[in-house]
Amino acid sequence: MFHRMYRSILSALLLLSVLQGQAQRYFFENVAVRDGLPASKVYALLQDSTGLLWIGTEAGLASYDGNKVKAFGAGEDLAPSGARSIFLDKDLRLWVGHLGGGISLREGNRFRSLQLEGTPPTKDITDIAQDEKGAIWVATFGDGAYRIGDVPDKGPVKTDQFNEGKGLSSRITGMTRLNDGKLLFLEASGDMKVWDAGKMGFTPFKPKGLPLLMGVTTVFQDSKDGLWIGTQSAGAINVEAKTGKVTTYDIASALPSNFVLCFGEDEQGRIWVGTWDNGLARIEKTASGGSTRTMAHTASGCDVLPGTARATCSSVPMMPAWRSTKGTGSGLSPKTIIWWTSRSGP
User: Fold this and answer.
1) Peptide bond before residue 320 is cis, with ω within 30 degrees of 0
2) Distance from C-alpha of 273 to C-alpha of 289, rounded to nearest angstrom
3) CA 222, CA 180: separation in Å to the nearest integer?
4) How far apart are CA 80 and CA 281, in angstroms?
């Protein structure tokens, strides 16, 4: 199901927050095919250490420096097909996972397509992450997960493959590196498992106080170690790290939809929630509880999602998303939040 859901994502959006007195207003800029994107279906966004934004689309990879979009194709020695996932490791190498199982690696200014030993993946690469020991993990939707150690300068790459026979589903929808360094795997069934490096195996992930959930879509850990769990029909579930207190944010508490697809955190510690069918919301926790604000279309042009009142957020990276100011040739404002949306109409 999640495999099909991601394929309906249409356009990359940049949201710029501007402080005016005591009020905070949001303005939107659209980056689309007309600007040079390889395709309008966007799967992944990542900002590298130089401030460059990398965009994975159905038709391939592109970069954006705040002014110009540059598309990358077969001439750059990338693996074929669209860019489904993007990851920057601790050595600042850029990893790209492709539709159909290909993996590309960028070291310095050069890309190359990696060839894996054994049984290489043929299904979509849904996520890439790095564990506390430095190994790279590649999650797929159909071939389980692959662990990569050293990458030789030439030749095939040695891997360890994990699937049903080794305690992990073959269909992985995503991975999250928790604040303690452990990797959490989200299976298509909604089950969550953590890789235990000491036991060299997977263990169920069941935080204390967490109710029985069905249809888990995403897991996020904030800067205070609190867990945020998105679901298909029960909204967003927050588990506080210190107290174990569980709070549900759903339509009844002003969330625009109960189908949550992603989370992010800004510099003020506010949590941004992307929904599958009704746009974006911001949760600001206070001593007396939490307040929810929905980003929606308005006639005045403020808090507006361009061209549609309904949007699907698929990723809200940690703030700050950009390091410099738009117009200087080196990116956008440090108060930019990045995600992508899907139009609900024609």
Assistant:
1) yes
2) 17
3) 12
4) 36
